[in-house]
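Board notes (copied after class):
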Amino acid sequence: MTETLTPDLCVIGAGSAGLAVAAGAQQMGADTVLVERGKMGGDCLNTGCVPSKALLAAGKAAQLDRLAAKYGLTTDAPQVDFAAVHRHVHDVIASIAPHDSVARFEGLGVRVVQAHGAFEDPRTLTADGVRIRPRRFVLATGSTAAVPPIPGIDKTPYLTNETVFDLTERPDHLIVIGGGPIGTELGQAFAHLGSRVSIVEMASLLPRDDPDMVAVLRAQLHADGLALYESTQVTGVSPEGNGVAVDIARDGQAQHLTGSHLLIAAGRKVNLDGLNLEAAGIARTANGGLQVDARLRTTNRRVFAAGDVAGGPQFTHVAGYHAGIVIKNALFRLPAKADHGSVPQVTYTTPEIASVGLGEAAARARYGDKVRTLTWPFADNDRARAERTTEGMIRVVVDAKGRVLGAAIAGAHAGELIYPWILAVQRKEKVGAIAQMIAPYPTFGEISKRAAGSFYTPSLFSERTRKIVRLLAKLG
């Protein structure tokens, strides 16, 4: 027997975007149905942000004995029980899971259908015998790891972020294909836990980040013992003995790498297969995503998109931002538009790299010679000196009048230090607001004040200023 539901909203996908929309809409009075074929919480909870940060935390703890000597301490080397590390990671997932659970959402009044859904027509979705005909739909099906067509990949065992956290034994030698955020984070975490790690990247490490910030991280990865193969092509993979082999080519030279495990971290692809989008009149882009307008509407105006499938930056915080845009449009009929110009990004390595807004190259391409950069090193920060974490810098990009166009930070706590710059970019503020704040001493946050204040250094200590001071002195 087919059950027919006619809610205000049907959300497809129970990841970060879908859960935020469903919880918000239901609590605002909209009758909501949530359809999810897999695990509640999606990639972020189960195979992404949460487990990766838990693994990174374990790796940092394992580093403490190696860092202790800087502070005049000695300690025994840690004994890594990787099965216990696995339990730690999954305990963290389990501690957060109730917030994303079916029980919680049903407690809010959301009808949860745990089944695969597909469109029957532009107004109808079917899922396990349930026909859903809402006023509006929200597609929030997220993304999954992309596996490039490498020769031999179909015959070679490999891991992705969806399977790597199931390991209960530490890899002896982990070969990572992909030097983006996922590859560098996981590569460094396993290195800190005692694995040999090689990262192969066809471009440069973290190619979307400021090269000077990446240089700070690259130096640390080398110090941590990782082997980095940048500007390197993977020509093939194959099983070898009990492990894997990766054939690479760099500068015309072929090389044969062997390892115990292979991790593919070469990008993401959106989850849209099997939804029968054609029946709903929902068009896709050339690269497989959804065609959406600034209000996150698809070509079927009853269907909105949120999160990774909407084509913007693929971050959990963007999914939450999209949820707010969709709710304003779908529930309140307000013409809210998504603006990704002030979306921050953070790579949670040691040191961290964080950025927001335009980098120097992009700013110069748009504004030409009117752009100025303000740089301040962690080495000139007293708190960084006290904690012996002086590697890194901040770089702020401003226009001729001091309006903040962007900022990038490499160093300890960069993900936290980027906060005031997010606000500055979002509100189009001038750098003076941060230069004039009273910063507590000694804090890492002083680097923001010092960098901002350097905008005024040329005029503040100019010959003109000295003449004014001498003139006023003569007047008594």
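Comment from the instructor: The first helix runs from residue 16 to 27. The radius of gyration is 25 Å.
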